[in-house]
Amino acid sequence: MIEARELVKRFGDRTAVDRLSFTVRPGTVTGFLGPNGAGKSTTIRMIMGLDAPASGRALVAGREYRRLREPMRTVGALLDARAAHPGRSAHDHLLWQAHGNGIGRARVREVLDLVGLGGAASGRRVGGFSLGMAQRLGIAGALLGDPEVLILDEPVNGLDTEGIRWVRGLLRGLADEGRTVLLSSHLMSEMEQTADRLVVIGGGRLLADTTVRAFIDRHARDAAVVASPDGPRLRAALEAAGGRVRLRPDGGWHVAGLAAPEVGAIAARAGAELHELRPERSSLEEVYLGLTETEAEYRGTGRGEEATAR
């Protein structure tokens, strides 16, 4: 179990985390979401004992991280896939970690095989690894102590489709074994498929702590899929009515914030021909963006202009 109890962290006159409380329970994959600058990384660093809170406490399995005698046996973490000496082999990198935590050499070989870095790959220098291979090595390190708690920050970055599916199955299996899994990722489609619960923060404060299904149902907005040969005219009319228009891979548009009948009426008034119009259930990505759109520290305009700070 992971417990954040009224965590506060300040950097100068800026409050990065503001009285944040949540619990990550065993047997679940809990997604940890928030826009850039929301305080996710700072919160994870406090849980891992890398930053000290101004007030409040972060507990792992009922204890502060610094009080764990052999921490890798209690909590495994992937915070930076490139945090390994480039001149060491994958095997020696994990062996060095194992020695400091009373873990045997056999476990090193076991986790390397588990993540697909056994055999010849285990002897390769880490500096020559692709990002995907580095991610696999980072996951192996997190699993090294066979911990009851796992904290993984963007574990699928750099992985191919097969690798992403493998991570998804791995996390699901770990949770089914009764372990506590906290997963931070910007890939909303993966989070929707993998997580059971969500902890969402913005501006260092808690915005939501609930199941994925309940989060979508509570915050869902009307949405529609539309295709039209009168593109610019219809888009301008939809955006003027408050719709958020996003291009789909098939060339149509996803319109958030407007129901399908409203889109049809707006198209009729604009004199725009429609080739397709249907309602669409909100995805986690759409709901998340709608909830956090005022919380992002940096954002682009969506039309190619330079991003501006709040």
Summarize the structure.
The chain is α/β, with parallel strands linked by helices. About 35% of the residues lie in helices and about 25% in strands. Strand 8 and strand 9 form a beta hairpin.
Write the layout of secondary structure elements.
Elements: E1 2-11, E2 14-24, E3 28-33, H1 40-47, E4 55-60, E5 75-78, H2 90-99, H3 105-114, H4 131-143, E6 149-153, H5 161-176, E7 180-184, H6 188-194, E8 197-202, E9 205-211, H7 212-219, E10 223-227, H8 231-240, E11 244-247, E12 253-256, H9 260-270, E13 276-279, H10 284-292, E14 298-299, E15 308-309
Parallel strand pairs: 3-7, 3-8, 5-6, 6-7
Antiparallel strand pairs: 1-2, 1-4, 8-9, 10-12, 10-13, 11-12, 14-15
Helix pairs in contact: 2-3, 3-4, 7-10, 8-9
Describe this structure in words.
The chain has 310 residues and is an alpha/beta fold. The chain has ten helices and 15 strands. β8 (197-202) and β9 form a beta hairpin. It is globular, with a radius of gyration of 22 Å.
User: Can you give the mean pLDDT?
Assistant: 90
- Whole-number count of domains: 3
How many strand elements?
Answer: 15
Instruction: Report the helical percentage.
Output: 25-40%
